[in-house]
């Protein structure tokens, strides 16, 4: 446990009692103030070091730079660096790695690359940590090609990728659906004696599910314990969600039971996925036990879970129960979202309660809700003909474009004809 205030207090006691404080003690004190975001005090100690005639070291100066960067004052950190360098001091790889991290954190990835080029001229050899930082943020910025180019440059310079590098690459490739290339990175890891960790394997599993390669995802899951890696709750969440999306709810339930056997505590994501799978497969009776289990664990169901339940009740025409659940949800302080209302509007219309659907629709308009395409498409034409819920030309245009984009051509044509009949568009 890091007790920075205690360290500061002890340092003050030393000063009061006239006990000599070394450069090491004062550097520790600077580090404490930096972690507490008290940079004014950190620089006050820095000034005291000068007055006492101590020779500054790279650790103290890098600590101050890191403190500024961590507290979002990257420009001040750069100015501090420039002033110190102008006085003949040289920073090492750790110092420049700190600045590169700071620049990337504020979205200045290009500036970080420029700094990488500058330090090479100053005979400071960039390391894998610097490259990892920039590559990671290039992917975040959506600059995948630039990230891969920088990775190639790193390897060409004889800098070996580490586990973190490989995890960054595998994650990016899986998100793009390039699972074969991700497997190639894994093969490269094995060849280079870089042992995959749970992050690597979780990412691969998720990637396989994204491209609907369920068997391969299961293979990776079965491989986890064999290679001596401990699965996490996130590991099971990937598998449970993937199984439910593949309509293999029994397998998801078995995985859930396996979590219990391992004394693992499911989180809200686990319950969300499982409840969604059960509801969509029409097995709503099992869901209430899971809700009770959540309450026993002091985990409150969120709006996503309630939406799943309300949707299942509406689709099985238990409309009164759906409204009871809506009431329960609101009593617990969970506000319905637009998706909740759309489910209810659609459910009421399908269940023959058009007046109730229209009542909800009107109420949402009065309360200033921004009704979306789905809200309007759920309502029958008889309701839309009512002027009080009549969309204007702009709304009609948005709805029609969205329906065409979703290949729902028939619905789009209905709204187009409606638009013409209302004089909102010339035929």
TrEMBL record:
InterPro entries: PPR_rpt, TPR-like_helical_dom_sf. Keywords: Endonuclease, Hydrolase, Nuclease, Repeat. GO terms for molecular function: endonuclease activity. PPR repeats lie at residues 57-91, 92-126, 127-161, 162-196, 197-231, 232-266, 267-301, 302-336, 337-371, 392-426. SUPFAM superfamilies: HCP-like. Gene3D superfamilies: Tetratricopeptide repeat domain (1.25.40.10). It holds the Pfam family PPR. NCBIfam families: PPR (TIGR00756). This is Structure-specific endonuclease subunit SLX1. The lineage of its organism: Eukaryota, Viridiplantae, Streptophyta, Embryophyta, Tracheophyta.
